[in-house]
């Protein structure tokens, strides 16, 4: 297997990991913004309790993705940085705002156990940024696959605003719904009794939105991104996407049966297969139709260095993240 394919596969694993972990963080902000009903205050408190211990730690995977892309495929990194300058910076701004707003809200003064006006304002910023950021990230994912972002003779060219096409908007909304679904499913495990029922209801609503937006995206893919459509139904990607579809059905069934651990596991498989199927369908292109893995890859020596350095880095990163979750996410001991 060519080295550039191995490095690209590692980068795709980073994208999947980021979606599974940080996607749920975004989704938590979405449900914080959309909290309703007589227990909306308790819902927000439960989300803050779930997100707070690992606040922003999952964005380490975004840095991982950027490092792999920058070092392994510098030509593609340069083209994406130019062609998608605006959405990338909007997404970065959203990440910064939601992270800062979450902390400022946590330390805002309260009056008689009720949130103050400043706390409410920071909460609105936290929720709004959590909505906008995954939408933009989903839109950029569409932009690299539809063939409207071109790199001709080393010059980045585009046909209009490539990340604001109907397909890009549909993909952005689908990313939003998937984040909301993941978060709600995760929260069914973090909560009990009435709050658990609340988040189960939200998971079912978000899952319905995922189904609807997926069906909406299919004709848009067929008519505006023929290359990606053909890749998705190819013998390479179709089995992976079929597993993802079965996992989605299993996750929905598990929610209906109140089997939340199974629903979470199936949801993780669903998201993983969806992104893996996209990566397989996109192959061998990074930016269709002008930049491939082979044409954008760094020199062989650099790729070898990446493959040697990444395991060493992961030997530090993975135990550190495990320890973080172990310390801050474990349930308290009964005798503590």
TrEMBL record:
Transmembrane segments: 6-34, 46-70, 76-104, 125-149, 161-183, 203-225, 237-256, 263-281, 301-325
Pfam families hit by this protein: Cyt_bd_oxida_II
Keyword Membrane attached: yes
Entry's Gene Ontology BP terms: aerobic electron transport chain
Keyword list, A-Z: Cell membrane, Membrane, Transmembrane, Transmembrane helix
GO MF, any single term: electron transfer activity
Leader peptide range in chain numbering: none
Subcellular localization, as worded in the UniProt entry: Cell membrane
Cellular compartments per GO CC: cytochrome complex; plasma membrane
Membrane topology note: Multi-pass membrane protein
Domain of life per record: Bacteria
Family to which this protein belongs: Belongs to the cytochrome ubiquinol oxidase subunit 2 family.
The protein's name in its UniProt record: Cytochrome bd ubiquinol oxidase subunit II
Protein's organism: Herpetosiphon aurantiacus (strain ATCC 23779 / DSM 785 / 114-95)
């Amino acid at each position: 297997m060519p080295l550039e394919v191995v490095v690209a596969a590692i980068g795709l694993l980073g994208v999947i990991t980021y979606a599974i972990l940080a996607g749920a963080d975004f989704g938590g902000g979405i449900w914080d913004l959309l909290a309703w009903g007589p227990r909306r205050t308790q819902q927000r408190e439960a989300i803050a309790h779930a997100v707070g211990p690992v606040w922003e730690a999952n964005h380490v995977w975004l840095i991982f993705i950027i490092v792999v892309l920058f070092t392994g495929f510098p030509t593609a990194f340069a083209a994406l940085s130019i062609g998608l300058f605006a959405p990338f910076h909007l997404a970065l701004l959203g990440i910064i705002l939601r992270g800062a707003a979450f902390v400022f809200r946590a330390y805002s003064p309260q009056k008689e156990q009720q949130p103050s006006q400043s706390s409410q304002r920071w909460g609105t910023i936290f929720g709004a940024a959590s909505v906008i950021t995954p939408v933009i990230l989903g839109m950029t994912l569409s932009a690299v696959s539809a063939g409207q972002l071109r790199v001709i003779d080393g010059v980045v060219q585009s046909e209009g605003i490539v990340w604001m096409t109907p397909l890009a908007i549909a993909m952005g909304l689908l990313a939003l719904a998937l984040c909301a679904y993941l978060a709600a499913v995760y929260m069914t495990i973090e909560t009990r009794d009435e709050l658990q029922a609340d988040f189960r209801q939200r998971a079912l609503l978000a899952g319905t939105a995922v189904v609807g937006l997926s069906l909406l995206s299919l004709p848009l893919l067929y008519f505006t991104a023929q290359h990606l459509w053909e890749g998705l139904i190819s013998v390479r990607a179709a089995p992976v996407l079929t597993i993802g579809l079965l996992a989605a059905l299993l996750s929905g069934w598990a929610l209906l049966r109140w089997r939340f651990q199974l629903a979470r596991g199936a949801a993780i498989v669903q998201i993983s297969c969806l992104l893996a199927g996209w990566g397989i369908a996109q192959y061998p292109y990074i930016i269709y139709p002008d930049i491939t893995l082979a044409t954008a890859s760094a020199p062989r020596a650099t790729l070898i260095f990446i493959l040697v350095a990444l395991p060493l880095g992961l030997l530090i990163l993975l135990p550190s993240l495990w320890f973080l979750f172990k310390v801050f996410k474990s349930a308290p001991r009964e005798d503590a």
